[in-house]
Amino acid sequence: MCLYITGHLNSVFPAEYRKEILRYLYCHQNEDGGWGFYIEGHSTMFGTTLSYICMRLLGEGPDGGLSGACSKARKWILDHGTATSIPSWGKTWLSILGVSEWAGSNPMPPEFWILPSFLPMHPAKMWCYCRLVYMPMSYLYGKRFVGPITPLILQLREELYAQPYNEINWRSIRHLCAKEDLYYPHPLLQDLMWDSLYFLTEPLLNRWPFNKLREKALQTTMKHIHYEDENSRYITIGCVPKALCMLACWVEDPNGVCFKKHLARVPDYLWVAEDGMKIFGSQAWDAAFAVQALLATGLTEEIGSTLMKGHEFIKASQVKDNPSGDFKSMHRHISKGSWTFSDQDQGWQLSDGTAEGLKCCLLFSTMPPEIVGEKMKPAQLYDAVNIILSLQSKNGGIAAWEPAGSSDWLEILNPTEFFVDIVIEHEYVECTSSAMQALVLFTKLYPMRRRKEIENCLTGASAYLEKIQMQDGSWYGNWGICFTYGTWFALGGLAAAGKTYGNCPAVRKGVKFLLGSQLEDGGWGESYKSCTEKTYIPLEGGSNLVHTAWAMMGLIHARQMERDATPLHKAAKLLINSQLENGDFPQQEQAGVFKENCLLHYALYRNIFPLWALADYRKHVLPQLKGI
Fold first, then answer.
1. DSSP state for residue 622 in the 8-state scheme
2. Cα 245 from Cα 138, distance rounded (Å)
3. Phi/psi at 60 (5° precision)
4. Is residue 417 within 8 Å of 88, Cβ to Cβ?
């Protein structure tokens, strides 16, 4: 949509790109004609409306597309309440595109960015991703920006609604949300707040003399947008703010250098896979896991060149500096020494990404440099440790991007309908465990460096993991599915801290959970529904190889082979027999999760984790057998 509005769609997405994007959409259209919030999900108004618009912008006619894709999608939209019931993010994009009116959206006042810092809802107290999505949204809302009204836009106005566009009562649709999209119903208090802003505050801010305040707020908001753009080298923290910030720069100056720099970084997000072209960016994250899986095999000499390339990429991906200038006044945390989710340019520190990158560099530092390359300088390792320690909360847990500590009640202000826990930063079992494992490895190699601080960190982190364990012995995973993923991480963290099956009840309970959820074929399989239901739900259809690998590694962390290796033998047999002739493992269900209600597809997981689990099995389990 951004590229269409700015007139750069065909130049950034040439014909073959557009063909692959359409192929991706066709591959994942549901039988009922709609699209979900993610590719395995039930059809939603958000997914279906945006996918329909995308097809039309890419050149498909109203009845075009593979097997009548557009007709089916439009029927789904009209049968489920029309685009008037799209969630708030969708209303924003439709208003920007010109196929909805800003009067149908709840306010996103840019004055939020000039609030006094002592207020509890100040931007600095928000979770960074939420903050950086609503920052350009508030700028575009404050401008009431609408893209060019082309003939195609006029057609979409007719196609997306059941009544004439100019007869829709936009004010009445502000709180509408299709039941298929509604995961987080807004509390009455929040709706009252939106109504107050809509009926009282906004009319004032658009009239003299209060419009002077609006102008100042827009200038401040744009200042923050430029700061984030520059410090992420125009990649931004993720794909959603990327498009919005790029559009905000174009609105400010269509011929400006900032917009041109944004255009140049669009290809960083594009990936072509078996199912077409998609957008994602997890290079550093994937590389750290892949390298650890390869190192676990012990095949150093056989794959030395691959390890060296991986080592060089990981070293190059470390962030070398903090954000520019007075970064605290721009609501930023330190980043020097960190690893991001994607690459160095993106610049956004991530605790578990930093921990996994640090683990790789520490492991490489013990290996022959003529095979894996020169080791990272100690000062850079120290910087990474500093990042990790800075993100520990008082409760012992480790936050993801920035220090946690804002008031939990702020979550009541969550403006989305399909995410939860997005307003403030939180601690996570995965981040805590990754940090613990990295710090323990660091201490083995640098025993005197910040020793007391690391010991205190590990003590608090261990207590945090034990405290958040579920009644059934599992841990809730926030970034993967779900209890299997969380339990693998938790057992790894506890093992690193010296907790064992014999001395820690939490480890025993975790092992009992994993053994109790193993399937007859030796594998594990957990439904994505576990994420939203907050209870373990088995996967329909049997085992998932990635889940099986996570469970195997969790049991190996807990030294299950010293008690009864049979469950591990059965799991290993399943993984080995599932490998394809070309060495690949079959693609199964999605394994990643974002904020409970959105699945993520990590294409490399299907190979990384089965390989890693089998390598650990070969190293730790097989030697327990006589004669091996």
1. G
2. 11
3. -75, 145
4. yes
Separation between Cα atoms, residue 233 and residue 225, nearest integer Å: 12
Task: Tell me, letter by letter, the H, E, C secondary structure of 67-112.
Answer: CCHHHHHHHHHHHCCCHHHCCHHHHHHHHHHCCCCHHHCCCCCHHH
Is residue 195 exposed (0-12), middle (13-18) or buried (19+ Cβ within 10 Å)? Answer: middle
Q: What is the DSSP letter of 402?
A: S
Query: Dihedral angle at the C-alpha atoms of 239, 244, 246, 251, nearest 10 degrees?
Result: 170
Residue 507: what residue type? V
Tell me which residue of 311, 440, 287 sits closest to 365, measured CA to CA.
Answer: 311
Categorize the per-residue pLDDT at 627 as very low, low, confident or very high, splitting at 50, 70 and 90: low
Asked whether the predicted pLDDT for residue 547 surpasses 60, the reply is: yes
State yes or no: pLDDT of 626 exceeds 80: no
Band (pLDDT 50/70/90 cuts) for residue 104 is: very high
490-518 pLDDT per residue, tens: 999 999 999 999 999 999 999 999 999 99
- Quick one: which of 231, 262, 62, 27 has its CA closest to 155? 62
pTM over 0.70: yes
Residue 539 token pair: 């996967």
CA angle 218, 142, 77 (to 5 degrees): 145
Distance of CA 291 to the CA centre of its chain: 21
Is residue 34 left, alpha or beta, with left meaning phi > 0 and alpha meaning psi from -120 to 50?
beta
Contact residues for 456 (Cβ-Cβ < 8 A; gap 6+):
none
Cα dihedral 238, 239, 245, 249 sign:
positive
Between CA 340 and CA 406, with CA 37 as vertex, the angle to 5 degrees is: 50
Write the burial class of residue 45 (CB in 10 Å: 0-12 exposed, 13-18 middle, 19+ buried).
buried
CA 71 – CA 63 distance, rounded (Å): 5
Is 352 catalytic? The answer is yes
Any idea what DSSP says for residue 282? -
Count Cα neighbours of 271 within 13 Å in the Cβ-side half-sphere: 15
| CB distance 391 to 399 below 8 Å | yes
As a whole number of Å, the CA-based R_g of the chain is: 25
**Identified catalytic residue from 181, 286, 352, 383:** 352
Quote the pLDDT of residue 625: 81
Taking Cα atoms as reference points, which of 223, 433, 245 lies closest to residue 346? Answer: 245
Q: What is the pLDDT of residues 364-401, one digit of tens each?
A: 999 999 999 999 999 999 999 999 999 999 999 999 99
